[in-house]
């Protein structure tokens, strides 16, 4: 994060695409928002309280295939992770994301289109200072060989390693000190991916109906089926970094610390945030909230 002040968009901007799950048309509008709004999703096809979804780790309903938010009305909104990554990666703190329907457009399976939209709209600073979540001690969650860790660091870094029982993906790693430039140039274009046999299984269950070679890298054996191949030699690991940027943005503020994921995914990343915020000695606000005594009467001059 380079800015010491909160930011929002200069103007509203929209895009259309298809939903990964339904395969139906999905549209999205990013709108400027005031200080301390954070990222607020609004489903324009619903009414009253059911419309609004706060982009926070404690509002995550499901992490199977994608990150799904819920609200007190029980409504859901799916596939928020790549928009979250683009907003966080470029340092946009406050925005209202309008969506007509139950899921965001998948675009090309990366965050590139969302980065393009945000840059077209432009980013402006607001008057209020930005608050970050500073990691004070190591927090780790894991299960069955998967692991996600946050450690104290003055920088915001994200590293991911994956190990696949597939010769084309195999073991790969990507890690970056995250700045808007790094996110845009090294991370945003990495697409989501799957194995052909998984895709067939999902289709058979009526899932990922919108999934295609237009919005995912599909691997069969040692072959990448997409025309044009990969965008980076380690595109798979870079997409895990992209997902982690989006998942960590569900903290509600930028996290200053070092994230390391080993075969981690949305579910474990969200559990990591829960573990971080459950331990009040593991993090603090930076800058710290104004102590109450600063608002008190000035000390009387000593005689
Ligand atoms: Zn993803």
Question: Can you give a write-up of this model?
Answer:
With 303 residues, this protein is of the alpha+beta class. It is 21% helix and 32% strand. The protein is built from six helices and 21 strands. The protein has a five-stranded mixed sheet with strand order 2-3-9-4-5, with helices on one face. A five-stranded mixed sheet has the order 12-13-20-14-15, covered by helices on one side. Helix 1 (81-90) crosses helix 5 (235-248). Bound molecules: zinc ion. Zinc ion binds next to helix 1 and helix 5.
Structural class: alpha+beta
Task: Sum up the overall morphology in one term.
Answer: globular
User: Looking at the chains present, what oligomeric state does this protein adopt?
Assistant: single chain
Task: State the helicity in percent bands.
Answer: 10-25%
- Averaged pLDDT, please? 92
